[in-house]
Structure formats: C-alpha cells, structure tokens
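Slide 14.
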Amino acid sequence: MPIMRPMPVEDKPVDLQCCLDQLQAFVRSAAGTGMPVHEVERGLWRRLLQLGHQLQSQFFALVGDGDQGDTVTLAEGRVGRRLPEPHRRPYQSVFGRFELERVVYGTRESQRIEFVPLDARLGLPVGKFSYLLQDWDQTLVVENPYQQVNQILSRLLGVEQSVASLEQMTHTLATAVDDFRATQPPAPLAEAPQVIVLIPIL
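Slide 15: predicted structure.
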C-alpha cells in the first residue's frame, strides 16, 4: 500500500458524490473484468483510506488555526501575545500524515510557547501520533516486537513509524500507570480456603 505523504491542510470541500461514483465505478469495473475478490477488497480499502484522509483534511481546515486575537489571558492573569509566525506541527493519524499550521501565544518570540489554542481545542496529543493510532500501537506491542508492529500497520494503513518512536510512545504512556492504578479500588483480600478435618471416633 502506498505511503500517504504529509499534506498541508487545504480548505477544499470533499465532493462525496464524486467519491462514491468513483468507488462504484471501481466495483463495476472489477466485476466486469473478473477481478479476484481479494484485489477488490484491497482496492476498496486503499480508496476508503484516501477518502478518510480527504475528510480529515477538510475537518482541520474547518476548525481553523486557533487564532484568538492579538492577546489571550493565560494562567494567573498573565497576558499572552500572538507570535508573528504560525507554528507547524506534524499529526499522524490512521488516515495518513498532516501538517497543521497553528497560531501560538507567548510573552515574546524568543521565549517558549505558552498557549496553543488549536491544540487545546482539539485535544491533540503531545507527540505527533493520534490517540487512536497510539491505542492500536499499544495493543499490538503487548505481544509483538516494535519492528513487527511497524510492519503490520504499514501494511494495513500505509503509515510509517520508526522503532524509536514506538519505544518512546510506550515509555511515555508507562509514566501514567501509577496514576491510573491510584484511581482503581483496592483488590479484595484473598480469603484462605476453609479446610474441614474429619476425625474418626474410635
């Protein structure tokens, strides 16, 4: 399956009727030419992933860049100023890669970014991998080596992840284990099994 390259978000509506017509044309052509069913499935899957990429790109275009004006009020009443240049970040979803341009706020350009409204609004992860992709990654790495997980998802989704990124993702998620366990009720105490001893009467 071809890898989907990172694409900037474009404000271009998706012609769903055209997409459906193309899907139906593919199915009719496959039926007319006697295409094996496994090739039909593969062709449909690839086209549906491409459609998902187009729709997600449209979603990002619709939500905008997070611009909230020249200034915003930060924690403790501090004022953040819109920095002159938008900042780009990669976002890797199950439908492919995107490059998001976001307005960011800080006290001045040379200091660290204080607030990114778009990231906050969409609940974007700290890293570039979507939460859904992280979930699938972690489901697979429980029983498979990192390189094999990368190969599996590359074959299914056409996305590339490095072994180092999977290792870092696992390490980052592992830091939340203690906090998660603290929210769980304590396990019930194990009860010792009852033993009945029969003493014969002589």
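Speaker note: The longest strand covers residues 87-93.
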